[in-house]
């Protein structure tokens, strides 16, 4: 497993620390979360996703594997929350040291 880029690690830490402000700060101003095709963009959208699906749902995230190629990092992660528990894939795109996007594709 390759080491996570700082921006990705910041987001994972923010989820596990239940720190919404740090979670939002990990993203670019036009950054977004795409969770199974539902896109939440801008600081307000990222904050809303954190509140409904991550931090507000008591989420814990464990990175199981990671591979970084340029500005894109693909991970397999474990997730435990009141909304979903299990394993998923995720893709991060980093821009200027912040997350431009975090995408969780449908698992089917």
Could you explain how this protein is built, in words?
Strand 1 (27-35) and strand 2 (38-41) form a beta hairpin. This protein has three helices and six strands, in the order ααββαββββ. By secondary structure, the protein is of the alpha+beta class. A six-stranded mixed beta sheet has the order 2-1-6-5-4-3. InterPro entries: NTF2-like_dom_sf. It comes from Microbacterium azadirachtae. This is SnoaL-like domain-containing protein.
Entry summary:
The chain is an alpha+beta fold and 108 residues long. It has helices at 6-16, 20-25, 42-53; strands at 27-35, 38-41, 60-69, 72-80, 85-95, 98-104. The protein has a single domain (6-104), classed as Nuclear Transport Factor 2, Chain: A, CATH 3.10.450.
SSE topology sketch:
Layout: H1 6-16, H2 20-25, E1 27-35, E2 38-41, H3 42-53, E3 60-69, E4 72-80, E5 85-95, E6 98-104
Parallel strand pairs: 1-6
Antiparallel strand pairs: 1-2, 3-4, 4-5, 5-6
């Amino acid at each position: 497993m390759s080491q996570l880029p700082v921006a990705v690690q910041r987001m994972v830490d923010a989820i596990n620390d239940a720190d919404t402000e740090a979670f939002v700060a990990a993203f670019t101003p036009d950054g977004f979360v795409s969770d199974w095709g539902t896109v939440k963009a801008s600081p307000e959208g990222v904050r809303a996703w954190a509140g409904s699906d991550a931090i507000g749902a008591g989420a814990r995230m464990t990175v199981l594997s990671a591979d970084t190629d340029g500005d894109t990092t693909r991970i397999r992660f474990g997730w435990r929350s009141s909304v979903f528990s299990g394993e998923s894939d995720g893709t991060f795109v980093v821009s200027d040291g912040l997350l431009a996007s975090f995408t969780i594709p449908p698992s089917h």
